[in-house]
Amino acid sequence: MEIYRTKIPKLAGTDYREINRKARRMFKDIASRTKRKPYVRSAYFKKEKVFLDYFWRHVEEMHWKDRIRRLRYYSCGLDLIMNARVEPIIKSNPNKLAEKLYRFVGMTADKELFAVQIKEDLKRGEKHFISVFPLGKDGA
Questions:
Q1: Is 58 in a helix, a strand, or coil?
Q2: Cα–Cα distance, 101 to 121 (Å, whole number)
Q3: Predicted model pTM
Q4: Chain centroid, CA 28 distance in Å
């Protein structure tokens, strides 16, 4: 398995509001480029769009400590999606056969491992950024 090495550090901050503000600012900068659903183009998927709206719905369902843990890696996750050409782990979604899940592994500038999950809707051909999270020493 290849690991994408990003030069972008994870978001710094001491509390949830500070980290959330930085991540939302990044999202708003991307969202201001389009009138419709915010997206970034992915190098791995041959510059196809990867939509970002599912990530925020997913994060809002979590406890605030888990939100902080994931939002710290938001900038690194976006960099990985836009620039990585490494081969991800690909799985079919056992709950929905019309979906495919991609898990990319990356390393921050601080040498910390993280993973990015992208869901592909096979019926519509759309890809959605679902989650970014740190990986433990065991890789899970």
A1: helix
A2: 9
A3: 0.89
A4: 15
Element (H, E) at 134: strand 126-134
Spatial contact of 106 and 34, defined as CB atoms under 8 Å apart: no
Please, which residues have CB within 8 angstroms of residue 79's CB and are 6 or more apart in sequence? Answer: 6, 7, 8, 106
Q: Where are the domains of the chain?
A: 4-134
Per-residue pLDDT of 48-77, as tens digits, reads: 999 999 999 999 999 988 999 999 999 999
**For residue 99, what are its two tokens?**
């979906």
| Count of Cβ atoms closer than 10 Å to residue 70 Cβ | 21
Residue among 10, 128, 2, 23 at smallest CA distance from 76: 10
